[in-house]
Specification:
Strand order of the largest sheet: 3-2-1-5-4
CATH class of the largest domain: Alpha Beta
Number of strands: 5
CATH architecture of the largest domain: 2-Layer Sandwich
Radius of gyration: 17 Å
Distance between the termini: 21 Å
Length: about 160
């Protein structure tokens, strides 16, 4: 089973503010929360809205004990999330799907497009190659396939 882990942060309230700012940077997702504890739930809700209609799940996997406000989310079907991440990096670096496919040694952009559409999931080696091509050393990307927290409850997107 493939797992994909995303990091989010619930920031402390600014002075005179009612809400906490919540961010999952890899997906360019931001939202707000009335408490630190509810931040991950609000992040999941925002991500589910972003991926409405797509087949994936996302679950809260705990707060990071070493970093205030940091939390982790895990997906068991990471194709759509990885696809969004790859597309965000590609667009940020001014590349087209054809550019990436050509750099990967393919004559057809459709093979790479399958990854961005979440229809295919690359091997770790292929993912490393894609990230190297997409970033050209301009942006570090951290991707991990962690063990899931046994207390996590799977919450399927509707």
């Amino acid at each position: 089973m493939k797992l994909f882990r995303l990091k989010g942060v619930v920031y402390p309230k600014e002075q005179n503010e009612k809400f906490h700012f919540v961010e999952v940077e890899e997906l360019d997702v931001t939202t707000q929360s009335s408490s630190m504890k509810d931040g991950p739930k609000m992040a999941i809700d925002a991500i589910e809205t972003l991926f409405e209609g797509e087949d994936f799940d996302i679950v809260f996997d705990g707060f990071d004990p070493d970093e205030d406000g940091a939390f982790y989310l895990v997906s068991h079907n990471p194709g759509p999330i990885l696809g969004r991440l790859l597309k965000n990096i590609r667009v940020e670096n001014g590349l087209t799907i054809s550019d990436v496919a050509r750099e990967m040694g393919s004559n057809s952009p459709n093979s790479y497009a399958q990854y961005e559409q979440g229809k295919s999931f690359p091997s770790v080696g292929k993912l490393e190659q894609m990230i190297q091509i997409l970033t050209k050393g301009r942006r570090g990307v951290y991707v991990s396939f962690p063990k899931i927290n046994k207390k996590s409850k799977i919450k399927k997107a509707s």
